[in-house]
Amino acid sequence: MPDTARLSIVIPTLNEAATIEKLLIPLRQWRLNAVETVVVDGGSHDDTLARARPLASTLIVSAPSRARQMNAGAREARGHHLLFLHADTRLPRGADRLIASALSSKQCWGRFDVRLEGRHPLLPVIATAMNLRSRLTGIATGDQGLFMTREAFDAAGGFPDQPLMEDIEMSRRLKRLSPPACLRERVTTSGRRWEREGAWRTLLLMWRLRWRYWRGASADELARVYRHVR
């Protein structure tokens, strides 16, 4: 890997031993295209570190919280472009080329459409609603694979150090720099949360939390509500 990569994929993890190899193994061949994978663990108590170490370009441990982990990974990353990817999310074929093409225009950030993987019949409907809402509002969630130039990340000040809605706030900051590139190619992310906690119950909870955040509720307050409900 050269000193500077074309794309750095930053992956925050916490107890993801069951999924991390499934994500990292297909990404090993991307190193030939100057793509690096930076895994940032928040203190896992399972085998996440042992399983990720031989597969990642870089593996570091940081203070827990997704925002802090992603910022720590960005500091270690060498890429001109940054992609922040959840450990249970899979990229579409040629995602590195899609990102490079999207960021070669006037847009400095973007996201993919999403497909929710699972058996619940509502998951395709929920994914379609997520994609439409994101396209209309210009706000993306972490499930959609947020990507951006290094310059845009720095100009936005990185992810805000807050326990919830860090992706929403980051989208707001990035929107001041340019509209997002809304790619129709889909990342595939696990629908386990929706199936485990109930699709309607989870959907209503997320709408309620986002509404309260838009009305000015603090991320700390909403995180307490989220943990209580879960």
Automatic annotation (TrEMBL):
InterPro entries: Glyco_trans_2-like (IPR001173), Nucleotide-diphossugar_trans (IPR029044), Trfase_2_rSAM/seldom_assoc (IPR026461). It comes from the Bacteria. Its main location: membrane. One of its GO terms (molecular function) is glycosyltransferase activity. It holds the Pfam family Glycos_transf_2. GO terms for cellular component: plasma membrane. It is found in: Cell membrane. Keywords: Cell membrane, Glycosyltransferase, Membrane, Transferase. This is RSAM/selenodomain-associated transferase 2.
